[in-house]
Design goal:
With about 450 residues, the protein is mainly alpha-helical. It has 15 helices and no strands.
């Protein structure tokens, strides 16, 4: 078979597998998005906008701590595990898993401890009373079962997207069930927070159990003991730099999404923070498919780029076109019907979030496209450059947020997000295009 025919057959096979895996995750995420939205609606209708905002601020605080201690090591398992599996280097792969498992355990313990200790300090900044501070401490316990990076990476590496799809549903399903029971029994802030805590822990536990089972099935049983930590840098050259870049990238991504909710609480009060969180929750209709698409594309883009497959750009361009069309639909729907839908669903007190929702939908569409491009950039080895683009974007976002929100109110965060989202999208377009041209020129 000619090389061109072999490349074409391989490309079609990878495209079909990517489409199949994305379909599995999309089904799970679609159900999860509906469940999460129903959960938010139940909370919003059961509580006043101010109390709803307080629960939002507690959740956001814990999410911020989670991301600070989240090293996203599942990305490293893909980046370094794929070549090991293809080369049949099982011993090195086990050593990699030992390292990532240690990081999981230590980050979960450290994150839980930090969240509990820092809760009183956060309470002073946000004006929480003793009861809300206690609830923040209770909800912080979810971090103890958060260390599932290795489990998630193994499931992605071995194409167990069916398990990942189920996990996407388990957590939101448990949370919705919990808030419904509380709504019937005793709709108070304390019991809502307790139900959300137990449900979130249950979802995290499910992923850990299934991930460990898959590890034992694929590579057999092994302990955490192995080479000393100081030897891993020599055994996996480039691992530390990659993990560091991805870690800071995750935190740069987190800052506009989570810290902005806390800033909204500072500038606009609990009610403003609740409206802002409600709008961002709705935009997850766009952000979550983008995250899923990155999870599906990244392993295959790494394989295609390492093998020099010519279909690398074909797969990337198709993903971008599909993402752009998908985002445009929701931007237009929000523009012409967002305020009316919020009023009919939640009441008049939530209608003012309509304009903000439209701006956030626009920003999220550009973020969706940037997420697809990021997978390609990571496969090419540009994690550091991509991180710098997002650092610039986050800095611009916070600057515009602080400058605009005191004067224009609730739409300030939306304007800031729309402008800042153009930086990583445009920068990665230029970066990837230059690298592809350079590679093609070198090949010729």
């Amino acid at each position: 078979m000619p090389d061109s025919d072999a490349n074409s057959a391989e490309s079609q096979s990878l495209l079909r597998r990517a489409a199949r895996n994305f379909g599995k995750l999309l089904r799970g995420r679609s159900v999860a998005a509906v469940l999460e939205l129903l959960m938010v609606v139940v909370l919003a209708r059961s509580l006043s906008p101010a109390n709803f905002g307080n629960i939002v601020l507690i959740q956001t605080y814990v999410l911020v701590v989670r991301e600070i201690f989240n090293f996203r090591i599942f990305e490293a398992i893909i980046r370094f595990g794929v070549p090991m599996i293809e080369d049949g280097d099982e011993n090195s792969f086990k050593q990699l898993l030992r390292l990532t498992l240690r990081i999981d355990v230590l980050s979960a313990i450290a994150g839980t401890f930090f969240a509990i200790v820092a809760a009183p300090i956060t309470a002073r900044i946000l004006g929480w009373d003793e009861n809300l501070t206690m609830m923040a401490v209770i909800y912080s316990s979810v971090l103890f079962i958060f260390g599932f990076g290795t489990a998630k990476g193994v499931l992605r590496l071995f194409d167990r997207f069916d398990i990942l799809s189920t996990h996407l549903i388990v957590g939101p399903g448990l949370r919705l069930t919990g808030v419904l029971l509380v709504m019937v029994w005793d709709p108070s802030v304390f019991w809502f927070v307790t139900a959300l805590t137990l449900a979130t822990m249950g979802g995290n536990l499910y992923l850990n159990v299934r991930g460990w089972a898959e590890m034992r099935r694929r590579v057999g049983s092994f302990g955490l003991r192995g080479h000393p930590v100081k030897n891993w840098q020599k055994e996996f050259p480039g691992l530390r730099g990659f993990v560091s870049a991805v870690y800071w990238q995750a935190n740069v991504d987190m800052m506009p999404k989570q810290m902005s909710t806390l800033l909204a609480g500072v500038f606009l009060g609990p009610q403003g923070a609740g409206l802002f969180r409600l709008s961002t929750e709705i935009t997850k209709i766009l952000t979550k498919p983008g995250e899923l698409l990155q999870q599906v594309l990244f392993p295959d883009l790494v394989r295609m780029w390492n093998r020099g497959a010519t279909a690398f750009m074909v797969l990337l361009q198709r993903a971008i076109l599909i993402s752009a069309a998908y985002g445009l639909v929701f931007v237009l729907a929000s523009m012409f019907g967002g305020s009316l839908a919020l009023t009919r669903t939640l009441g008049e007190g939530y209608a003012e979030a309509g304009p903000l929702l439209t701006l956030l939908m626009l920003a999220t569409t550009f973020e969706l496209l940037a997420t697809v491009l990021r997978s390609a950039g990571y496969a090419m080895g540009h994690a550091g450059k991509i991180l710098r683009l997002h650092l610039i974007s986050s800095g611009l976002y916070f600057l515009l947020f602080v400058l605009l929100t005191p004067y224009v109110g609730l739409i300030g965060p939306g304007l800031a997000a729309s402008v800042a989202s153009l930086v990583p999208f445009g920068g990665m377009c230029v970066l990837i295009r230059k690298h592809v041209r350079k590679t093609q020129s070198t090949a010729v």
